[in-house]
Amino acid sequence: MSNSIPTREQDYSEWYNALVEKAGLAEHSAVRGCMVIKPYGYAIWEKMQAALDKMFKDTGHVNAYFPLLIPKSFFSKEASHVKGFAKECAIVTHYRLKTAKDGSLVVDETAKLEEELVIRPTSETIIWSSYKKWIESYRDLPLLINQWANIVRWEMRTRLFLRTAEFLWQEGHTAHATAEEAIEETKKMLDVYADFAENWLALPVFKGVKSESERFAGALDTYCIEAMMQDGKALQAGTSHFLGQNFAKAFDVQFSDKEGKRDFVWATSWGVSTRLMGALVMAHSDDQGLILPPKLAPIQVVIVPAYKDVAELSEINVVARNIQNELKNKGVSVKYDDDDTKRPGWKYAEYELKGVPIRITIGKRDIAANKLEMVRRDTKEKEVISLLGAADLVVSTLDLIQENLYKKALKFKNERTFVVDSWDDFEKKIEQGFVAAHWDGTAETEEKIKELTKATIRCIPLDQIKESGKCVLSGQPSSGRVVFARAY
Amino acid sequence: MSNSIPTREQDYSEWYNALVEKAGLAEHSAVRGCMVIKPYGYAIWEKMQAALDKMFKDTGHVNAYFPLLIPKSFFSKEASHVKGFAKECAIVTHYRLKTAKDGSLVVDETAKLEEELVIRPTSETIIWSSYKKWIESYRDLPLLINQWANIVRWEMRTRLFLRTAEFLWQEGHTAHATAEEAIEETKKMLDVYADFAENWLALPVFKGVKSESERFAGALDTYCIEAMMQDGKALQAGTSHFLGQNFAKAFDVQFSDKEGKRDFVWATSWGVSTRLMGALVMAHSDDQGLILPPKLAPIQVVIVPAYKDVAELSEINVVARNIQNELKNKGVSVKYDDDDTKRPGWKYAEYELKGVPIRITIGKRDIAANKLEMVRRDTKEKEVISLLGAADLVVSTLDLIQENLYKKALKFKNERTFVVDSWDDFEKKIEQGFVAAHWDGTAETEEKIKELTKATIRCIPLDQIKESGKCVLSGQPSSGRVVFARAY
Questions:
Q1: The whole model's pTM is what?
Q2: What pLDDT score was predicted for residue B103?
Q3: Residues spanned by the domain of B432
């Protein structure tokens, strides 16, 4: 990678920013806080979308699309929801521009909306205003809908993928006849997210529930998956909310059960966003560039010819295209880079930067020996392998890389998660990673810890062991450990 | 279909509106002019997206994502572009709400944007402001990018799918070194659209170029495909624009050619939208409901059991699930509706309304005879067929239906396109369909014809025969016929 980019050691934060731009994932746009997702980054996002979409459909959900613009009054209907989102809304007030006398383009003040419209920061309100029309009886339940959409939250400090004024996401919104069923759905979708994180992103996660102060505005419970980045900080990678009857009450959505009794509907919502792109980069990549899990890599294998002259190249072309076709037939996405204007060394660095999982180099001498060189991006191991059976070996190596990235991340997560019982230790260990410590359950202590260390409760783990202990800060009784970390 | 819906004969316009809602495709939302695309409608749109996306990628394009919000000043940079879009823009002026003293939610006037942002009505300006950073030399060209996005145009009179304040679309934006190459791209993408219309929507189209007055704001030439609806009116189904160097000049995007000479880049843009959903409904459906081309039908085959009691049903279940699996293995999307709370007659009407291409009914007697009943949605033909080989026959019948819909639409288009030489005839025939007539090439005559008949020039056909003639209205010389119609 160009030496204008710092190493992770030098400046982890700047390493991330520079890598996202240099690798062609995304860049800042002319609009404050809004990013352009560039083709290479978008290709990864498309692969995430396809995998998630299939998982949603396999669990019985269907897609739909609801309006971008939400009447301001809808927000007021759910009290805590408006508190959570009113401060970061983009608001549409007019619907026409005009040319002023001096020739400049100005807002036409005569085209003012009667009621302002808010660009969706999340869609609970507009969706539940529709559900009111769709739900009449238990026969209409459960209603299991997902939406792929863009979202705007007027964040003040933004970073590519991690926090942007506009981002892309999916939001599931489901309606159920009972609280139990809704809670089951909330947990099921958390499991889908954890499954996706582990098996696609190669990212082990903590599954848990948020403390009250970190809950989604309008939820009774917020479940989350939390992943550890290479600097030991946490990244919330997905959330699943049990909304109780809050939105059903706000929009008066009732149903008749089999006995004709009327009750409000129970709700969930759940989402993951282009933040996952940031998690992917921060979890696996190194000082040379991206390291992509093969399942999400737009190019899984690149073949680079090493040659002296055109005669050599045309000889290599035949062999390279053969293996390219063999790999394609096995479902591998493979690029043969025979661009004659770039040297092999330049190409090696470029595909390292781009995180292509396997690079194959073919030279004239390799062909004579019926060999080729295979280089793994994750371990940088070089291996000279036989042409015969090379395609099968490449395919199984892609699986190995996927597995290795997960194992490496899991090892790191385990090594950097500290069980801590004293405040001294807490302050030391929180610099290095996650801390599992007793907490007295109060918002005051939570807030105090945040002030002292910048660490927040990432989650109360779902697999928490019930054990009596003393709060790491206050010394008050606690019934189990929760996970603290500094977070993105 | 419920008799609350008029027939096409009674009220074509109301038939369309009611059908879109009753079949569960879309409905109006609480926000003026914005629709909710319901799951069944969205499932069709997803199939359209998948097919188009593959066609774009097969022709060398990649996807990316650009911001929803565009600085107002960007619009002023291309003079005709701003004229075309300034009158129908949703404008963001503030970024925060607050609770007023009386407890109501109001816009926080202290959170006013320095420069207003426009919700994209199309993305040429924001995209070309990025291209300026991406294009430096001929090596960066061509740049072939597509975006799937939502769009807002503040239309005053809206109709589900056909004209809505917010809609979904794709927009291709390409950059080229020469005018010839850009024109070639413009035409290539028009061909992709025509191919998609014919082979997926089963919709024959006129391919042509717009007259100056119907051109896209900022284009040198707008190519289009125009389809005929069952009432003889035209629906513009896709457009492809040759933008010349207009946007490159507006955003100062220059490149160096191989000799180091600097020049402005040549551009195209092209798009289709959820309007295609409207075209699909209006072109093929009948008074009983939707008729969907099998390639775009979310459910291609439905199996309905006809039974007296539970014992019969469980016998039918075995046979039905066998054929369901057989069809699934052949890639057919098939639903077995064994819902015991609904009668077969109700189900027949429901799947007719939903436009499912083939319905299979299985009763006890059918099983005894090793038969089943197959009903085509397009022709309503019933056929009793042998269970043995039924799956293959269903698959080939799906192909026949796709073909038949296209042929039927083509026959209709041919019958309702009239070659006309007198003004009398023009006025008569324009009531029934498209009119191919000589035109003197002036905007005045075009405008006059529109005033007199509401018909516009849909396109100057690409296969126009050069022949001398006299303008159907003015009698002035003309070099070929153009296509007139009333349009959606």
A1: 0.97
A2: 86
A3: 417-485
